[in-house]
Design goal:
With 199 residues, the protein is α/β, with parallel strands linked by helices. The protein contains six helices and five strands; from the N terminus they run βαβααβαβαβα. Bound molecules: flavin mononucleotide.
């Protein structure tokens, strides 16, 4: 079987903060199964929102016409991956603005090019102090489901405020490890089916 890869996009500006800790626990479950992982720092970058210029539907070149930030690099990594993890801290009961800008632009590019994320396996991870985790998860899952991705069960919520707090949330950490295992199982099952269909 070919090597499978998962890319995670972290919407937190805190590079090694709570969201990153949760994502790395998901990675454990994936890496134990021989799946390659890569974490991309989206939060803290200057990322513009979608300008609705419509050029993606004219060019259909898998790229956004706004080229002065990291969004096209992210899209390329997402296209090249078998699985995609979106991670975000809760900011005013939703994802960070950097992650939302990426969701809008990557989502539209995928759509303009015939469904670039179709059948990729996806999950989401949220770090939260107290309120808004489910709404934040919904924002990320809506992107995945409307992009035709496959989500293997419940995503990850970790409770914490200061950097490192989520490590004390045993249930959240256990959930992250479990999600990594589920994601690995689904990725391998899909890859095996694709392989059989190719024979
Ligand atoms: C601008 C801002 C808005 C926030 N809004 C919320 C919120 O609505 N609900 C909540 O529970 N926590 C909120 N928080 C707390 C973060 O979600 C929490 O500290 C989280 O663990 C940060 O994760 P990180 O270390 O990955 O950045 C907010 C933090 C900031 C900086």
């Amino acid at each position: 079987m070919r090597t499978l890869k998962v890319v995670a996009l972290n919407g937190s500006p805190r590079k090694d903060g709570n969201t990153s800790i949760l994502v790395r626990h998901i990675f454990d479950g994936l890496e134990n199964e021989g799946i390659e992982t890569e974490l991309v720092q989206v939060g803290g970058q200057m990322i513009r929102g979608c300008t609705d210029c419509g050029k993606c539907f004219v060019n259909r070149d898998r790229r956004c016409a706004s080229t002065d930030d990291i969004v096209n690099d992210c899209i390329e990594m997402m296209i090249g991956a078998d699985g995609i993890i979106l991670g975000s801290p809760v900011y005013f009961l939703d994802v960070t603005s950097e992650l939302k800008a990426l969701i809008d632009r990557a989502g539209l590019i995928a759509r303009a090019n015939g469904g670039l994320f179709h059948r990729k396996v996806g999950t989401a991870a949220v770090a939260v102090r107290r309120s808004g985790a489910n709404h934040t998860i919904d924002t990320m899952l809506h992107f995945m489901l409307y992009s035709g991705m496959i989500v293997p069960g419940a995503p990850v919520i970790g409770i914490g405020y200061e950097i490192g707090d989520v490590r004390k949330d045993e249930e959240g950490i256990a959930r992250a490890k479990e999600v990594g295992k589920n994601m690995a199982w689904m990725l391998k099952t899909i890859a095996r089916t694709d392989q059989e269909e190719d024979v």
